[in-house]
Amino acid sequence: MSGDRGDRGDRGGSRVAIPVYQVDAFTERAFAGNPAAVVPLDSSADAGWMQSLALEMNLSETAFLWPEEGAWRLRWFTPKREVRLCGHATLAAAHLLWESGRLAADRPAELDTLSGRLTCRRRDDGAIAMDFPARVPTPSTPPEGLAGALGTAIVDCAASAEDLLARVVDANAVRDLAPDIGRIAQLPVRGLIVTAPAEPGSGADFVSRFFAPRYGVPEDPVTGSAHCVLAPYWAAALGRRELVGCQLSPRGGRVEAVWRGDRVELAGRAVTVFRGELAGAALPAAP
To answer: Which residues are marked as active site?
Structure first.
């Protein structure tokens, strides 16, 4: 196992070892929430190598980050492709920067991404708050056959730039979904968000599940980027901007959200599960 800073050479002594961490995001305990791999680098690496490592990790997202121009460059890869926005792997990356000492505890994590700069801050209660772009959905007609693919009636439908949102009757309908993943994979969207009001007394305002089989993620355990759509949708439906979402995947997770027009603040906690280092054969080719 490596030290936190990954500063030892590989077995042959010719190249610096690269540490790999697995962090459970949007949870206060290990083995819940959404696991992300986080790979801190000294500088940029070949995108093909990053994609291959993401496939090897076989998690919904693998995050790569390195220092760049006074901030941190952050890229996210599913097992199949690079994505423009990811919440849980951003939370995991920011958590790792502070926990490993790469970033001072009182400094914000400034992360430059394909979706612009994302800023993460540690709150006094231990949660991490992330400033994300809002993806306000617009009313949409449900695609033909979607209700059949979900196995339940659709109450409302809306579309954002990348995702489709389907509202169903209640939290039990979301929890009990057994969708036809093959049919969902035919939708021309990044992913499908299925949502409903939370049960009274649950401590949440709405529930959801997220399916992205076209990106190699049949079901994502907890999806921060989906809450960039869910927050403005439920803020409009419920008449308030501060909300709590609960994702009802088997692992489950909780996301705090505040809608602020063209931005959404998402907040949650994270737990490091393990750390290791890449063996020499897995290191990227020398430049």
So the answer is: 61
